[in-house]
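#struct-pred
JK: can someone run the complex with N-carbamoyl-L-aspartate? inputs below
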Amino acid sequence: MPERNLTRLTLRRPDDWHLHLRDGDMLKAVLPETARHFGRAIVMPNLVPPVVTATQAAAYRARIMAALPAGMDFTPLMTLYLTEDTDPEDVRQAHASGSASAVKLYPAGATTNSASGVSDFEKVRPVLDVMAEIGMPLCVHGEVTDHAIDIFDREAVFIDRILKPIRKKVPDLRVVMEHVTTQDAVDYVRDSSKNLAATITTHHLIINRNHILAGGIKPHFYCLPVAKREAHRIALVQAAVSGDKRFFLGTDSAPHTDANKLMACGCAGIFSASNTMSCLAEVFEVAGRLGKLEAFTSLNGPAYYGLPPNEKTITLVKGDPVQYPARLETGDGPVTVFDPGFDLHWRVEV
Ligand code: NCD
Ligand code: ZN
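RT: done, structure tokens with the ligand placed:
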């Protein structure tokens, strides 16, 4: 059947390779939004205080499982927050025991709760060497934090100043460049022959910097890395719909209450867990590549992480526009759901 006539699409259940679940009341509210459609997620460790050790990751995983409503099937894949004091043997043990699937590198000060991140990369070299040896991926927030560097250039500069030297020194390290936002990052990933992949968020496939800044400032579109100009968004869409195994979904769904978004110094983060699959179906359909959606959401990620794809499936059904609640109520206050700015015709049948 020609793609333009598709009205039903069955996919392996998707996974989210970059997700913020938070803790406490917020965790309780946002977890079902992901677990409804997704089988697994790489869970970010940027709690306060951050999840640094194998023991802390196991405890956080237990809190997530306790917050999961009965009958929902979801597997959190935990990460360790890399600090200059991280013990390589604790990382080895976390990987061996399954209490962590990856390590997360935040350059110190890059984003929400990243004060404990890395400034001196030589200090974490022993950890990276162990990870290369055991094949444990390093998830990288790829932005420099140098105030002299323009915020729109921070990803491209990170690739040259930080990522290229790390990958040269530790060539066997498996790296995931997370939430890429630039043509530069797409090209860098495409040009590498091994040990490098990238996640792309839902919102970076849909918004550019005009959405944030033109016609009034829109805090709900503010996230880090910040969305770039339209040419970069187009490069991201081309990478996502290409089917190239090195690109896969990491929503970076990052809930903040409206009170924390709508203030003089509002938090960075877009909450897209609720409507991500409907948004993505629209993006892939417009690109004429619905046939590649499953690779992006459900196949390429597990392949890079050395895991089988999910056995279960979901079905997307096309029809009248689907309405998602504009806000999710949480014990901490309302959280605004990402508004793609267009109708969503694909609803998820699970
Ligand atoms: C994330 C958050 O709120 O935790 N915010 C964001 O804008 N993406 C932090 C992050 O992953 O950068
Ligand atoms: Zn994130």
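RT: quick notes.
The chain is about 35% helix and 15% strand.
The longest helix spans residues 154-169.
JK: thanks, will look after standup
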